[in-house]
Description:
There is one protein chain. Helices cover 76% and strands 6% of the residues. By secondary structure, it is mainly α. Helix 3 (54-83) packs antiparallel against helix 4 and helix 5 (122-136) runs antiparallel to helix 6 (142-160). Residues 169-185 have low confidence and may be disordered. It has a two-stranded antiparallel sheet.
Amino acid sequence: MDAQALKQAKWLGGLGIVFIILSAIPYIGTILGLAGLVMFIVANKKLADLTGNPLILSSTIKSVIAAVVGGTIGFVVAFIGIANHDSAVALIGSLIIYLSLVVTGFFVKQVFDALFLEFRNDLFRWAGLLIFWGYILAILAGLGLIAALIGWILAAVAYFTLPEVPQHVEQQGGNTTNTEQNTGG
């Protein structure tokens, strides 16, 4: 693994998630959220390249598509229903938003499960679980969203705690060990 690329991915991923969390701030939040999404994608692209695990990037892209496309369609449908005083259409829009959250959570969990397997950092696994189940439980008002928020915070910490020095995971007789890889310098 390339030490410089790993360091960049570490900071892009951590800061990207912080910016995504800060997207709830009025006005500037939209800009922070978009910047955070781009940073999250770039970080996971770097990590996918470094580890040779394409699931990291493909699931990242799928999660972003599910969130943006599903959320936008759901919002537009719900808005049309509200504007036309049609509660059935508004409910359908809300259901689309909810389903896009669940699908997004599923793909985010795949990303963090893959990162857990590559780096053996339990925070990634817990972040994925909390985000996925938090989005499923979002139907119970704020309870699920609080769990998801905690999951995103754990994910940011997980990125920030990635190793500075590249490590290589080897399989030896069924035992998994982490050893530092010689980077030639």
